[in-house]
Design brief:
Number of helices: 4
CATH class: Mainly Beta
CATH architecture: Beta Barrel
Low-confidence stretches: none
Number of strands: 15
Radius of gyration: 18 Å
Mean pLDDT: 97
Structural class: mainly beta
CATH topology: Acetoacetate decarboxylase-like
Largest sheet: 11 strands, mixed
Order of helices and strands: HEHEEEHEEEEEHEEEEEE
Oligomer: single chain
Length: 246
């Protein structure tokens, strides 16, 4: 293979059989369970990187069921998003993500910098209850429940949230183990179709784990719960801060 061929075909690894295809990445019938809870403000400040700012002690714990996604297939995801501001604009910092499918793990980390790790999340309906669970190996680290479609939710507020920017800390090491890329990345979702949205009573349990430390942001009080279904496009990102720049 010629050098020019390597450069022309270099998109993702492995070179001759990439783990994921080029975008755009479209999701159909993407189902969310999002429980917003109050936590310890000092714990938030310890994990949110500058220049992002934490303004209130809130965390959004998410379970996301993705049955139809371009190139990534059928999978489920779970993790924590922290409301932040950047230059005065409200958005969300993606703090942790656990999922059960290799292509979006590889693509999410390599393209955007999503903090993805392999685990076993599930989002399902048990009789009259929406249930989300996250197991890391054989160990249960999170469980959420919500009354199934108890009341309609504010669709305008959900759409506004989906239109807001999200932030990631992208880290890729050099071959000597030092950081080669360390960037704050901003991304958006677009072309959103909200197919239904509901709210209701909810619960959330987080359990300590050395390698899936979701409980390091403890649940002090549940503020709200949302269940909604969308079609959307996950746009590629832009770098808004380079931590290695002189």
């Amino acid at each position: 293979m010629k050098i020019a061929d390597v450069k022309a075909n270099a998109f993702a690894m492995p070179l001759t059989s990439p783990a994921f295809p080029p975008g755009p990445y479209r999701f159909v019938n993407r189902e969310f369970l999002v429980i917003t809870y109050r936590t310890d403000m000092d714990a938030l400040r310890a994990v949110v990187p500058e220049p992002l700012e934490v303004t209130e002690p809130l965390v959004k714990y998410e379970f996301i069921r993705m049955p139809d996604s371009t190139g990534f297939g059928d999978y489920t995801e779970s993790g924590q998003v922290i409301p932040v501001t950047f230059n005065g604009q409200r958005g969300g910092y993606v703090h942790s993500m656990y999922l059960n499918d290799h292509p979006p793990i590889a693509g999410g980390r390599e393209l955007w910098g999503f903090p993805k790790k392999l685990a076993s999340p599930v989002l399902d309906t048990e009789i009259d209850t929406l249930v989300g669970t996250l197991d890391y190996g054989k160990v249960r680290v999170a469980k959420a429940t919500m009354g199934f479609k108890h009341r309609p939710a504010d669709q305008a507020a959900i759409l506004a949230g989906l239109a807001a920017p999200n932030y990631l800390l992208k880290i890729i090491p050099h071959v000597d183990g030092t950081p080669r890329i360390c960037e704050l990345v901003r991304y958006y979702t677009s072309n959103v179709t909200l197919k239904g949205a509901w709210t209701g009573p909810a619960s959330l349990e987080l359990h300590p784990h050395a390698l899936a430390p979701v409980a390091d942001l403890p649940v002090l009080k549940i503020e709200s719960a949302l269940h909604y279904i969308t079609d959307l496009t996950l746009d590629l990102g832009t770098v808004v801060h380079d931590y290695l720049a002189a």
